């Protein structure tokens, strides 16, 4: 099982403030999937490094230490280009572009995209941390 995490608007609010319960969410993900977690981020090393620094500065030290284990799934066109559709996965993101939706539908895995809407539910990461910890490999 691979886990794909977007940074902006999932872990960071407005690109700079740590989202509520980001520590608990990252700890739950990394406890369960320490070798199969990826940043799903555009091929923009500067932005990725900046976001990593912002996360590290705001996370608990024990959570920040886990960030080094997260791999980078790079893409240039659409985010779904970085998804390994041969493996089970969960993708945590704040929006789904039309091209990505088509790719998920083509592979019949639309339920693997987990919408994180911090505006609608600022505490969604708390719920998702529990859901990840309890996840049985089907739908979240």
Question: Concise description?
Answer:
With 140 residues, the protein is of the alpha/beta class. It has helices at residues 22-32, 45-58, 61-64, 98-106, 124-134, and strands spanning 2-5, 12-13, 17-18, 37-42, 71-75, 89-93, 113-115.
Explained architecture:
By secondary structure, this protein is α/β, with parallel strands linked by helices. Helix content is about 35%, strand content about 20%. The protein is built from five helices and seven strands, in the order E-E-E-H-E-H-H-E-E-H-E-H. It has helices at about 20-30, 45-60, 60-65, 100-105, 125-135, and strands at about 1-5, 10-15, 15-20, 35-40, 70-75, 90-95, 115. The strands form two sheets. It has a five-stranded parallel β-sheet, with no helix packed on it. Helix 1 (about 20-30) packs parallel to helix 5. The chain is globular, with a radius of gyration of 14 Å. It starts with a strand and ends in a 6-residue tail after the last helix.
């Amino acid at each position: 099982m691979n886990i794909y995490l977007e940074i902006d608007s999932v872990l960071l609010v407005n690109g700079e403030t740590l989202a509520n319960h980001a520590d608990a969410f990252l700890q739950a993900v990394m406890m369960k999937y320490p070798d199969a977690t990826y940043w799903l981020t555009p091929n923009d090393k500067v932005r990725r490094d900046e976001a990593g620094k912002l996360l590290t500065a705001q996370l608990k030290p024990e959570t920040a230490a886990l960030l080094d284990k997260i791999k980078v799934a790079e893409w240039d066109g659409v985010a779904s280009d970085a998804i390994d559709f041969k493996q089970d996965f969960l993708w945590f993101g704040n929006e789904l572009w039309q091209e990505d939706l088509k790719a998920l539908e083509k592979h019949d895995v639309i339920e693997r995209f987990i919408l994180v809407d911090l505006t609608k539910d600022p505490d969604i990461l708390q719920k998702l941390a529990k859901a990840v910890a309890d996840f049985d490999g089907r739908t979240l």
